[in-house]
Design goal:
Layout lengths: L1 H13 L2 H31 L2 E6 L4 H10 L3 E6 L2 H6 L5 E5 L3 H6 L6 E5 L4 H28 L20 H40 L2 H5 L5 H31 L15 H29 L3 H13 L3 H6 L16 H12 L4 H26 L2 H5 L2
Parallel strand pairs: 1-2, 1-3
Antiparallel strand pairs: 3-4
Subcellular location: Membrane
Protein name: ABC transporter permease
GO molecular function: ABC-type transporter activity
Length: about 375
């Protein structure tokens, strides 16, 4: 009888167009759109061409020098440099003293005005290029002045600095993006994937007055509850696993984002542990949605209860920035938060089996605690029959 009820509930849910949309179409569009959006953020700095405005009266010799030290910038003359930047015609502007050449020969300081928009990412990036170019020009000019006075330029070097990174910089940035993308999207997809079935199988049946006929059947209420719970959980698990598969697929077609996966030394254990947490989270969240749906008298009312809870999934992303980067085992016992910490530590090489066990155990414990509450509510006929 349990199998019959489970199959009936699953068929009823899959007939609903909302379920198909949130189970397949929504994850497909969401994962594809955000994966390539994040990749675009990483590649924009490499592919963007910036334009620098200069005064119309600027002599060609200075323009040649600017092109020499800033070869990635396109130089355009403008009547009003600042206005051109404000109207987004160019990303940055530069103004130098008209007697710059004479000042350079007399070894005097040349006044340089760099105009850019601090609220624009492109303008800020262009300013970094200009500053780097001017610093290079300044260093070469200083070396020439010292050589003219028979002074070794090495007297200016106090330190010989050589930086060494623990990982590839591009890989590190890409892995940071993935550490935000994965724990944010997959739980949201799980919650949305199980949402239609959770609202329909309890609040929806209350609203349609079909729950009464189900409760008077010679079947133990616990079996009916388990069948509904399994339906909601399996749909959430399906959505979560589908998101992992889609992300793995789409990342291979990105330019920069796929470099982040190279940071994980042992991807197979990471994927296995991720699937285990997805299953446990889907079962846990199905219980929450199930309880909230029981307390509602209509699908609309159930939606009002569930929407804030689904929104809470994003909150750990804000707290994560204040949690510190070191491995923190207590945080693995906090629902929602442990998903973000798990992915972050996996990409930083800090993840341990003990931390994973604590996260999995916390969900298992919550599932055990919540089920008697759900069973108690479902056995309350006055509540289940609604108004």
């Amino acid at each position: 009888m349990f199998k019959t009820i489970f199959l009936k509930e699953m068929k009823d849910v899959l007939r609903d167009k909302r379920s198909i949309t949130l189970l397949i179409i929504f994850p497909l569009l969401m994962m594809a759109g955000l994966t390539f959006f994040y990749d675009k953020i990483l590649t924009s700095n490499h592919d963007e061409d910036f334009i620098m405005a200069v005064d119309e009266g600027l002599d060609s010799e200075l323009i040649t020098q600017l092109e020499k030290y800033m070869p990635t910038l396109t130089i355009e003359k403008s009547q009003d440099v600042q206005k051109a930047i404000e109207e987004k015609e160019v990303q940055i502007g530069i103004q130098l003293d008209k007697d710059w050449k004479q000042r350079l020969e007399d070894q005097e300081a040349i006044s340089v005005n760099i105009i850019f928009d601090p609220g624009s990412q492109d303008s800020s990036n262009a300013s970094n290029i200009v500053m780097a170019g001017l610093n290079q020009w300044q260093q070469e000019a200083v070396q020439l002045r010292l050589a003219g006075q028979n002074i070794d330029s090495s007297v200016l070097e106090v330190f010989q600095i050589e930086t060494k990174t623990t990982k590839d910089e591009d890989n590190a940035i890409a892995s940071f993006m993935l550490a935000i993308l994965i724990p944010l999207l997959i739980p949201m997809a799980i919650a949305n994937g199980s949402y239609p079935s959770a609202t329909e199988l309890f609040a929806g049946e209350k609203e349609k007055k079909t729950i009464e006929a189900l409760l008077i059947t010679p079947v133990k209420p616990i079996k009916i509850l388990l069948a509904k719970w399994m339906t909601i959980s399996l749909l959430g698990i399906f959505t979560g696993v589908l998101c992992i598969a889609l992300l793995s697929l789409f990342v291979n077609f990105t330019t920069e984002l796929k470099k982040g996966m190279a940071v994980i030394a042992n991807p197979v254990p990471f994927v296995i542990m991720s699937i285990v947490l997805i299953v446990l989270f889907a079962i846990f969240f199905a219980e929450i949605e199930m309880i909230l749906s029981m307390m509602a008298n209509s699908v609309k009312e159930a939606g009002h209860y569930m929407t804030p809870v689904i929104g809470m999934i994003t909150l750990p992303m804000l707290f994560m920035f204040f949690a510190g980067e070191a491995l923190s085992l207590p945080l693995y016992a906090v629902p929602f938060m442990n998903l973000f910490i798990f992915v972050r530590d996996a990409f930083s090489g800090q993840l341990t089996v003990g931390a994973f066990g604590l996260a999995a155990g916390s969900y298992a414990l919550l599932i055990i605690i919540l089920f008697p509450i759900a069973a108690k509510l479902f056995s309350n006929h006055r509540l289940m029959l609604g108004k």
